Amino acid sequence: MPSLEAPIPLEQLLAAPFEGARIALHPDPDAGELATLLGSSKRSVPDPRGARGGFTEEEVELARRAGEIPARLGRSILRIEMAAIAAAAIARYGSLAF
């Protein structure tokens, strides 16, 4: 069961140990699709996070330098509440086509 933690600075989050692929949800058109990056492995869902209005370019670069792989959920930009649900569905079922 997922747990909800108190907000922490992005730098602290990126420095924390993490098991599995470090995938960050980001609507960059050059980012890979989450379903493709996860493949059929049904790995852990990336931790959905972000600020209202999206990440700044500095935050995106900081995440990339920390080893985060940018992934998008599709052509639409979703609010964090919907992005979390969509990411969980993709990790569980492989796509949103169910």
Written account of the structure:
- A three-stranded parallel β-sheet has the order 1-3-2.
- The protein is 35% helix and 9% strand.
- The protein has helices at residues 10-15, 34-38, 57-65, 80-93, and strands spanning 23-25, 32-33, 69-72.
- It contains four helices and three strands, in the order αββααβα.
- It has 98 residues and is α/β, with parallel strands linked by helices.
Features:
three-stranded parallel β-sheet, alpha/beta, 35% helix, 98 residues
Quaternary organisation = single chain
Q: Strand portion, in percent?
A: 5-15%
Estimated structural class: alpha/beta
- Helix/strand order, N-terminal first: HEEHHEH
State the major sheet. 3 strands, parallel
Uncertain segments are none
Beginning-to-end CA distance, first to last residue: 23 Å
Tell me how many strands there are: 3
Helix content: 25-40%
Strand order of the largest sheet: 1-3-2
Gyration radius, rounded:
13 Å
Gross morphology: globular
Helix segment tally: 4
The averaged pLDDT comes out at 79
Outline the fold blueprint:
Blueprint: H1 10-15, E1 23-25, E2 32-33, H2 34-38, H3 57-65, E3 69-72, H4 80-93
Parallel strand pairs: 1-3, 2-3
Overview in brief:
It contains 4 helices and 3 strands; from the N terminus they run αββααβα. It is of the alpha/beta class and 98 residues long.
